[in-house]
């Protein structure tokens, strides 16, 4: 099975987590991860531009073939949901401009794929990411969530490949 490089994103306007893994069959390996930070004092336009530029720079530098983006999980604050939507949009735009396959997953789907429980806490997700990718040493929850999105996509891609193989 060919090696596939997957980028995961945990969108946020203030903190956007990102992580990149390689998937070869069932073997996962850590490539890189980090958090893009913007500040409210920069103004909305500058913040969105910075997110777009950083995501585009990471894509160009690490050359993933697919991107997995966590879908928005909205509580009761419509303004926060709108800001999160803006951040997601610029990240997805950067991926589309690079010609990447774009997948979006609900937070519960990602947690279930990585931890086995859809309502797992951030600490559980981070611990399981460290276990699945021992070399990553991830300490930031946003980056761990992004790596978890990439792992969830790799898991789904493996399942899809098995189904296609069985059908042919």
TrEMBL record:
Residues that bind Mg(2+) 2, according to the entry? 70
Q: Per its UniProt record, what Pfam families does this chain match?
A: RuvC
Entry GO CC: cytoplasm; Holliday junction resolvase complex
> Where does this protein hold Mg(2+) 1?
10, 142
Reaction it catalyzes: Endonucleolytic cleavage at a junction such as a reciprocal single-stranded crossover between two homologous DNA duplexes (Holliday junction)
Annotated PROSITE patterns: RUVC
Tell me where the signal peptide lies: none
Q: Where is the active site?
A: 10, 70, 142
- Localization of this protein: Cytoplasm
Domain of life according to the entry: Bacteria
How and how many cofactors are bound, per the record note? Binds 2 Mg(2+) ion per subunit.
What EC designation does it have?
3.1.21.10
By its UniProt entry, which InterPro entries does this protein fall under?
RNaseH-like_sf (IPR012337), RNaseH_sf (IPR036397), X-over_junc_endoDNase_Mg_BS (IPR020563), X-over_junc_endoDNase_RuvC (IPR002176)
Keywords (alphabetical) are: Cytoplasm, DNA damage, DNA recombination, DNA repair, DNA-binding, Endonuclease, Hydrolase, Magnesium, Metal-binding, Nuclease
Q: Which HAMAP family match?
A: RuvC (MF_00034)
Q: Which family does it belong to?
A: Belongs to the RuvC family.
Q: Its biological function?
A: The RuvA-RuvB-RuvC complex processes Holliday junction (HJ) DNA during genetic recombination and DNA repair. Endonuclease that resolves HJ intermediates. Cleaves cruciform DNA by making single-stranded nicks across the HJ at symmetrical positions within the homologous arms, yielding a 5'-phosphate and a 3'-hydroxyl group; requires a central core of homology in the junction. The consensus cleavage sequence is 5'-(A/T)TT(C/G)-3'. Cleavage occurs on the 3'-side of the TT dinucleotide at the point of strand exchange.
Q: PANTHER family, from UniProt?
A: CROSSOVER JUNCTION ENDODEOXYRIBONUCLEASE RUVC (PTHR30194:SF3)
* Listed name of the protein: Crossover junction endodeoxyribonuclease RuvC
Q: From which organism does this entry originate?
A: Rhizomicrobium palustre
Please name the taxonomic classification of the source.
Bacteria, Pseudomonadati, Pseudomonadota, Alphaproteobacteria, Micropepsales
């Amino acid at each position: 099975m060919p090696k596939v490089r997957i980028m995961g994103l945990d969108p946020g306007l203030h903190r956007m987590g990102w992580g990149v893994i390689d998937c070869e069959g069932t073997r996962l390996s850590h490539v890189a991860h980090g958090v893009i930070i913007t500040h409210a004092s920069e103004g909305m336009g500058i913040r969105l531009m910075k997110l777009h530029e950083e995501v585009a720079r990471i894509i160009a530098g690490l050359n993933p073939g697919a991107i997995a983006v966590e879908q928005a999980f909205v509580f009761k604050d419509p303004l926060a949901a709108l800001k999160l939507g803006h951040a997601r949009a610029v990240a997805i735009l950067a991926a589309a401009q690079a010609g990447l396959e774009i997948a979006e997953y609900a937070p519960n789907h990602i947690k279930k794929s990585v931890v086995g429980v859809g309502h797992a806490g951030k600490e559980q997700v981070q611990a399981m990411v460290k276990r699945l990718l021992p070399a990553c040493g991830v300490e930031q929850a946003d980056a761990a969530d992004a790596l978890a999105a990439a792992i969830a996509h790799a898991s789904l891609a493996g399942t899809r490949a098995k189904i296609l193989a069985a059908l042919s």
